[in-house]
Amino acid sequence: MKFTKMHGIGNDYIYVNCFSEKLPFEPEKLSQIVSDRHYGIGGDGLILICPSEVADAKMRMFNADGSVSEMCGNGIRCVAKYLYDFGIVRKDVVTIESGGKVLTLQLTVKNGIMELARVDMGEPILVPELVPTLLQSSDGDPGQPVINVPLTIAGKMFAVTAVSMGNPHCVTFVDELSDDWVLGIGPKIETAPAFPRRVNAEFVQVVSPTKLWMRVWERGSGETLACGTGACAVAVAGVLNGLSQRRVEIELLGGRLEIEWSEADNHVYMTGPATTVFTGEWVVSDQGAGISRV
Length: 294
Prior knowledge:
Blueprint: E1 2-8, E2 11-17, H1 27-35, E3 45-50, E4 57-63, E5 68-69, H2 73-85, E6 93-98, E7 101-110, E8 113-120, E9 149-153, E10 156-164, E11 168-173, H3 179-190, E12 200-208, E13 211-218, E14 222-224, H4 228-240, E15 247-252, E16 255-261, E17 268-273, E18 275-284, E19 290-293
Parallel strand pairs: 2-3, 4-6, 11-12, 13-15
Antiparallel strand pairs: 1-2, 1-18, 3-4, 4-5, 6-7, 7-8, 8-17, 9-10, 10-11, 12-13, 13-14, 15-16, 16-17, 18-19
C-alpha cells in the first residue's frame, strides 16, 4: 500500500490515495497500526482520499485509536494539497466531501505546489443537542448555546463553551496554559458523561482580542500539535465570550492559523499551510503488521 505522510502545522496523518490504492485491512484497524510512532509509520491517524459523487474528492478520517472522526481542518488542507500536487485535481478552488458536508477550499499555489488553503468550514453548530452535549445554557433553554457554563471534572469546577465544527469541541479559557490543564484535565473532559460522543478539549490563553494561544487534547489521539476544527471552535468561543474579535490569529504548538467568523454569512474561514513530509510503501507481513519503505 502506497502512502504519503503529511501535516498541517504539525498535525500529522498518513494519507492513502483510494483512487488507486486498496487497503490491506479495515481502516479502523489499519489506522491503529500505521499511526503507532514506534512500530508504525507514526501519526495522529489515517486519512483516506476517496472518489466522491458530489465533490472533487471525499475525505475519510480515522483517529490513532481507530475511531472515526467526522472532520479535520488541518487534514482537509492536506487532502487539497495532495489532490493538487499529485495532479488529481489541478484547480485553484477545490471541493472536498467530509462528514456529510462539502467544503470549498481556495488554494494559494506557487511554482506548481500548493502552499496555503483557505477553507470555508461552514457555520458553527451551537445547539447543545447537535454538538452534542448534555450541558445546558445558563438559562436552561435547551436550544440556546452553552457559553461559559460550569463543568466539574475531578473535583475541579471551571467554565466551558461547547461548539461543533462538524465534530464536538469543549473550549476552556485559562489564565495560563499548562500540562496540568491539557494532560491532566483534557483526557477527563474527552470522556466526561456530559459529552456522549466524547469531545475535543481546547485550552486557550487570550493574548489580545486578535491573538489567542491554544493547546488541544484531541478525541481519540491525545494531545496533538494542532487542531484546525479546534482553532475554529476557539475563535467562535472567543467571540461568544466577548474575549476576541471575529478575525483572530491562533498560535498552536505546531504553528499558526488565521480564523475568521464572518458576520456576512455566519461561516468560519480557516487559512493555513499544508506540508508533504515523505511518500512510501507499506508492506504487510505475515503477522499482519508491516514495514514502510520510503
